[in-house]
DNA sequence: TCCATATATCGAGAATAGTCGATATATTTG
DNA sequence: CAAATATATCGACTATTCTCGATATATGGA
């Protein structure tokens, strides 16, 4: 996890449309959601959806798996864990103690 | 924590300059860092720094406290916790089980 | 082969963001 | 009051992003 990766992932999530998409996938869990289903659910033009989806996939927050004619999208929990870990990690590293955050062990 | 707040916070962190600034403040801990110290540390023009700092303050990730002539900046750990909680929370909510994320209890 | 479905790419316009030098403001010190 | 320090705002330029309709591609079925 270098800072560029983290920044690009945060930027990807820092757009309401993409955050909504991502959250919908997170809620969908391991079974994921087809692109079309996501589109129906969120009522977004397919080009816009595809554009944003691409960004989420590029930064590694979403994975895609082709199933015959449809493309299943899934939130990548591993990368979410790393991201969360990065944010929580190193808190107060330059200081003594008094930190309310507990560093996530899984931080990569 | 509504989605707009979360998106704006993520967007604020989704820029390498701001993420670096924020991380530096996180590492600095409760004692914080004056704007000028931050500038020296990161070697960024003061106007650019001020511009980015403003954004971090606006979204609530950083707080500022005036100390006579200097302005001390601190990472707001509470909002960081909320943000992290939001990301981890509701994972697989629309599904049965099989979720690797453990929801952060402190999520607000 | 032709059509329907699923998804991606293209192209363009409007909006927003990132950066920086110059300048402004406010505070302290001499 | 003048100079120095600390930080913010302004103005401008460039670059990037967001969004969408139109079009392209790829796959499976009649």
What does this structure look like?
Chain A is α+β, with helices and mostly antiparallel strands. Chain A has a single domain (3-107), classed as Winged helix-like DNA-binding domain superfamily/Winged helix DNA-binding domain (Arc Repressor Mutant, subunit A), CATH 1.10.10. Helices cover 53% and strands 13% of the residues of chain A. Chain A has five helices and three strands; from the N terminus they run ααβααββα. In chain A, strands 1-3-2 form a three-stranded antiparallel beta sheet. In chain A, a hairpin with a 2-residue loop joins strand 2 and strand 3. In chain A, helix 2 crosses helix 4 (46-58). The longest helix of chain A has 13 residues, at 16-28. Chain A is globular and about 45 Å long. The N and C termini of chain A lie close together (6 Å). Mean pLDDT of chain A is 86; it is low at 100-108. Chains A and B meet through helix 1, helix 2 and helix 5 of A and helix 1, helix 2 and helix 5 of B. The first copy, chain A, binds a DNA duplex (30 and 30 nucleotides) through helix 3 and helix 4.
What are the SSEs and their pairings?
The structure is a homodimer of 108-residue chains.
Chain A: H1 3-13, H2 16-28, E1 33-34, H3 35-42, H4 46-58, E2 62-67, E3 70-75, H5 77-88
Helix pairs in contact in A: 2-4
Chain A binds a DNA duplex (30 and 30 nucleotides) through α3 and α4.
